[in-house]
Amino acid sequence: PVRPPHSSSTMTSSTSLSLRFSPPPHTLLPSKPRRSLVVAAQTAPPAVEADRLEPRVELRDGFFILKEKFRKGINPQEKVKIESEPMKLFMENGIEELAKKSMEEIDGEKLTKDDIDVRLKWLGLFHRRKHQYGKFMMRLKLPNGVTTSAQTRYLASVIRKYGEDGCADVTTRQNWQIRGVVLPDVPEILKGLASVGLTSLQSGMDNVRNPVGNPIAGIDPDEIVDTRPYTNLLSQFITANSLGNPEFSNLPRKWNVCVVGSHDLYEHPHINDLAYMPANKDGRFGFNLLVGGFFSAKRCEEAIPLDAWVPADDVLPLCGAVLEAFRDLGTRGKLTETRMMWLIDELGIEGFRAEVEKRMPSGKLERESSEDLVNKQWERRDYFRVHPQKQEGLSYIGLHCPVGRLQADDMDELARLADTYGSGELRLTVEQNIIIPNVETSKTQALLQEPFLKNRFSPEPSILMKGLVACTGSQFCGQAIIETKLRALKVTEEVERLVAVPKPVRMHWTGCPNTCGQVQVADIGFMGCLTRGEDGKAVEGADVYVGGRVGSDSHIGEIYKKGVPVTDLAPLVAEILVKEFGAVPRVREENED
């Protein structure tokens, strides 16, 4: 059997980006060849003119900028980047001067309508212009969802000062987002983040989003590989150790990456632009590669095999090669057609692979391995409650965080519990929940008796609540058409009164077609829309999706019913649960007399 790398790692060459991982203290069961994941790649690449492969960007004054000849028909965001380099807000400390001005002054001086709101996203700052003028959401980088009690307390201290506007969300990429931030505070917040080992740099707009990994990496007795060293290195590589990396800060559109370390596929590889799938090859451990998965308002696609395998040491060079191909060749016109899969369609999978291969330091890329290490018959495990770790005498406990929303006091209390019972560490999950690892097994009962776990943050949520996910919604997001978080909880409570469900059902809510709530991979998904009520007037509603899957048999759900008023959702969901998921109607008490 081949051993995957242990969590300690060092970079040995800045030019080749080669890595060396030490062997782990355990071995895997022997693997046997399995079929490739997902769908077959294209076999007949389209004809591509040679001049189409000319890089569309060039390095100028330390930053990549779109060449003059490729600027016709570009989208407004690309124009903003050309007019004023967003990374200078951080790398040349432009945020210090900007923070001294009022939003009214900034709006009066801005070059275009979207100028400052777009550029600030390179610092992870999202202006809530529509609903909270002058207030910002700040998105962090938190590779693998691993955070500390000190980091959690610092974030709590930031949002506390903003009163009702201040709160935090766990995102569907294992990340923190904090709300209520005002621009004059940003320089000090950035320094505070750095002091606890955090950054918000390059977390929005045309950048690489938070690298996702196994939420129980390093503590999971059944893991294939500890994903933490890979996700940490990817994040450091992409941001140049939080100093800012212009190599990858001018992509055609946002870009998602994950490293799979579990049979459970907690990492959701099929909806990432690049997914590393663990596989052995010729006695070496490494990764097969999936590319192109994404959601958007116009199109949703699962990732497809690149027909390539890299040894573990080449995780970073491969990432760099894929990003460079996307940066150099991706289209920058209509915003809805700029994700990486559009480029793959244009070049064909073999054409895209060739462009990645030529950008590898060695100029070579091995073909996919047949020795996939993910067990496709694996039944996805529940991480709620108490579970033994691979470390003898330690356990982890999964807590439900209703629709990912926390207040400052909640974060302080989580930090206290992590310090008192664990090692001062917390893990965030893509389902917007929280895990406390490294709890001495002898202390688990005392932890379970904590009042904090008796209320909202339960280790044993109800069967429908445990799979509930919701995006920000119209409370804070200007693009959302409907309110999502409170409504998701309310509708789920109503449904639980109508039916009894025999097994978990994942229900996802998103406020608009941008689908941050990932409704297409939910068992039942709700996408916000406006529809007509009984009186013919416009009311909040949802398009209902059914049949999405995550895991080795992943696929995208389909529309079940469009334009359902939110007031009519509970009975419809109950009907779907009975029809599709084996639910049983609850007998009302008045009928039992």
TrEMBL record:
Which pathway does the record list? Nitrogen metabolism; nitrate reduction (assimilation)
Task: Supply the enzyme class, top level.
Answer: oxidoreductase
Q: Which Pfam family, any one, appears in the UniProt record?
A: NIR_SIR
What EC number(s) are associated with this protein in UniProt?
Answer: 1.7.7.1
Question: Nitrite/Sulfite reductase ferredoxin-like domain spans which residues?
Answer: 130-195, 387-450
**Assigned keywords, A-Z:** 4Fe-4S, Heme, Iron, Iron-sulfur, Metal-binding, Nitrate assimilation, Oxidoreductase
**Region spans: Disordered:** 1-35
Low complexity compositional bias, start-end: 1-21
A GO BP annotation: nitrate assimilation
Q: Which cofactor does it need?
A: siroheme; [4Fe-4S] cluster
Annotated Nitrite/sulphite reductase 4Fe-4S domain ranges read 205-361, 468-577
What highest taxon heads this organism's lineage? Eukaryota
Q: Which reaction does it catalyse?
A: 6 oxidized [2Fe-2S]-[ferredoxin] + NH4(+) + 2 H2O = nitrite + 6 reduced [2Fe-2S]-[ferredoxin] + 8 H(+)
Q: Which PROSITE patterns match?
A: NIR_SIR (PS00365)
Q: Which GO terms describe its molecular function?
A: 4 iron, 4 sulfur cluster binding; ferredoxin-nitrite reductase activity; heme binding; metal ion binding
Name of the protein: Ferredoxin--nitrite reductase, chloroplastic
